[in-house]
Amino acid sequence: MSINHNLTKFLILSLLFGFLGSSPAAGYVPTPEEAILLSKIEKDSAQYFIRMSDKVTGLTRDSSQTGSPASIAATGFALAAVAIGQSRGWIPKDYAYDQLKKTLTTLVSTAEHKNGFYYHFLDARSGRRVWSSEASSIDTALLVAGALLAAQYYPGTEIEAMAHRIYERVDWKWMMNNSSLICMGWKPESGFLPYYWDSYNELIILQALAIGSPTYPVPPEAWEAWIRTEEEYNGKWIIYSHSGSLFTYQYSQAFIDFRELDDQGINYFENSKNATVANWEFSSSFQTQYRGYMNSSWGLSASVGPGGYKAYGAKPGQAIHDGTIAPYAALSSIVFTPEESIRAARYFYEELHDNLYGHFGFKGAFNLDKNWWAQEYLGIDQGITVLMLENFLNDGIVWQKFMKLKPIQRWVELCKLKAVSVID
Amino acid sequence: MKERRKHFFINKPLQIRYMAYTTFTLLTISIIALVSLYIGIWGSVLDSFSDERIRNDLLIASRLTEYEQARLPSEADPLSTLSFFKQAEKLSQRQREIFKDILDETNRKLIAKLFLLFFFIAWGSIYLSHKIAGPLYRFHITLEEIEKGNLKTRIHLRRFDEAQFLADRFNRTIESLDFTFSRLKNIVAENSSDLDRLVPRLREVLGQIQTSVDKS
């Protein structure tokens, strides 16, 4: 009886795993149980974008905290997550289509923007700018990336047409403010912010969309203008972001497949892989000081924490940390460090489930030393989780679809990002 | 020489009625506008500034400041006084946005209500003016008929038309003229073959009528 039961379970898991497929995206094949767990996390995380998006405008709230405004980055992730959810059969086709159409219609017609750049925070019900927020370049890029990815799931439809209209309306060159770099934002009250995307971080997705734009492209020289600061950590040379936060190594690579792209000898996929390992090693080196840092519990990245939202991170970089772990960070590194990420996912899910897991997947963060548990979910955290898990579980499908976009191919060509295999 | 009015109430019932119409209309407009403003503004203010909303806004202000500090490393230390000022500034900006939204929304609702009021006022004006314009038109038509020599014509006003008393008086005047001319016609018809009787009888009747050719 027991043998039959186990055999049945094995066959079911095998069938399911067969559907999910192997994972050439990361060169690691998860066990059927692991695949089921990851699939559940992805599905639950995608639910955030159904529940936290406005029923009329489709704009997605920044967090599950009461009173939270809509964030355009979260809305971008929502467009991607809903399209993915539909493709996986978690969201009914009609519902997903209506949700995407509603959101894109709002973005095309009513959401406040300046030269195509949306304000960072919008009123979820009206699409009007709130909290005196800036027209944000990186958040608009994440929104556009999500919209273009959704468009790839609906070729030849109004979803595709509206997504490209939103993209083509963005005047990327204007955001350079006559400089060689792209400015972080603009405010009606004070003009351009005094900050520019000048060094390695999540800016790559912004650069790619800006250089590849069919309407208002920035010159390819902008790709050369930002600094790639390199530092060694535990024998690995890493081009690092100032904060050392894991999300900076993930956002662009949720959309762009860097595995075979070479930027003058730099492979950003390998770089993110090294940075993720460094992040794991960094927190491991503090295991005696912080209870939350374990081999199976890691992930230093920007997140909520006992003292508010901080750009937590590891070396190389600023490396602010206080024992707070962001589950999304470890999980979204799955394409770089599959075994370590799955180990963390299992620990978070199996050992900390009651405090850490809810209707929308993992909550923001936790800190065992202070017995602090986030009570909220953040849209961007759930979004990056969905995209990275989808890449991992579904044979890099997000990468495949995104890399087929002409603007992305144009950026690859203009910036001479040669395929690694060609160089080899 | 100034022509001063000695009596403002010439036709008291009519004037009081019209005063009531005007006052009622203006009062209705004022009440609707005031109630809309009061409920629109204060209702929204009380809702937007409830303890819960203020607490949430404080948390969001704090969170958004932290976002900026996380994104811009050169920004102030999260625990510095400047950070608190930034949170306060954000909250203040948010409150201004809320007030602006409340006023905009109230104005939008008020404009919608005013359009409705304008419609009713326009309809009321036409109704009221018709009560005067209608009789004036009928007087005009009747006088034209009289000018053509038709003394059989009379003025017939609607039940709630103004100037009923004037129409009655007018009709009595026409009746009197009609009677006089009918009498003259009868005298002429009865005495057309006897001029000696006709002339004195005409003189008798015409002598009762005062005209411009009569010497005073």
Number of strands of chain A: 18
- So what's the overall shape of chain B? rod-shaped
Alpha-carbon distance between the termini of chain A?
A: 55 Å
What proportion of the residues of chain A is helical, as a percent range? 40-55%
Query: What are the low-pLDDT stretches of chain A, counting only 5+ consecutive residues below 50?
Result: 9-24
Biggest chain pair contact, residues each? A-B, 22 and 23 residues
Strand content of chain B: under 5%
Report the mean per-residue pLDDT of chain B as an integer: 85
Rg of chain B (CA only):
39 Å
Radius of gyration of chain A, CA atoms, in whole angstroms: 21 Å
Write the layout of secondary structure elements.
The complex is a heterodimer of chains A (424) and B (216).
Chain A: H1 2-20, H2 32-51, E1 70-71, H3 72-87, H4 93-109, E2 113-114, E3 117-118, E4 121-122, E5 135-136, H5 137-153, H6 158-169, E6 182-183, E7 185-187, E8 191-192, E9 196-197, H7 203-211, H8 222-225, E10 230-233, E11 236-239, H9 251-255, E12 261-262, H10 268-284, E13 324-325, H11 327-331, H12 338-351, H13 353-356, E14 357-358, E15 361-362, E16 366-367, E17 372-373, H14 379-393, H15 397-403, H16 406-414, E18 418-419, H17 420-423
Antiparallel strand pairs in A: 1-4, 2-3, 5-7, 6-9, 7-8, 10-11, 12-18, 13-16, 14-15, 16-17
Helix pairs in contact in A: 1-2, 2-3, 2-14, 3-4, 3-5, 3-14, 4-6, 5-6, 5-7, 7-16
Chain B: H1 12-48, H2 51-71, H3 81-147, H4 164-190, H5 195-207
Structural commentary:
The complex is a heterodimer of chains A (424) and B (216). With 424 residues, chain A is mostly helical. Chain A has helices at 2-20, 32-51, 72-87, 93-109, 137-153, 158-169, 203-211, 222-225, 251-255, 268-284, 327-331, 338-351, 353-356, 379-393, 397-403, 406-414, 420-423, and strands spanning 70-71, 113-114, 117-118, 121-122, 135-136, 182-183, 185-187, 191-192, 196-197, 230-233, 236-239, 261-262, 324-325, 357-358, 361-362, 366-367, 372-373, 418-419. In chain A, strand 16 (366-367) and strand 17 form a beta hairpin. In chain A, helix 3 (72-87) runs parallel beside helix 5 (137-153). Chain B is mostly helical and 216 residues long. Helices cover 76% and strands 0% of the residues of chain B. In chain B, helix 4 runs antiparallel to helix 5. The mean pLDDT of chain B is 85. Chain A binds chain B through residues 63, 65-69, 121, 130-133, 184, 195, 242-243, 302, 307-311, 318, and chain B through 52-53, 56-57, 59-64, 66-67, 69-74, 78, 90, 93-94, 97.
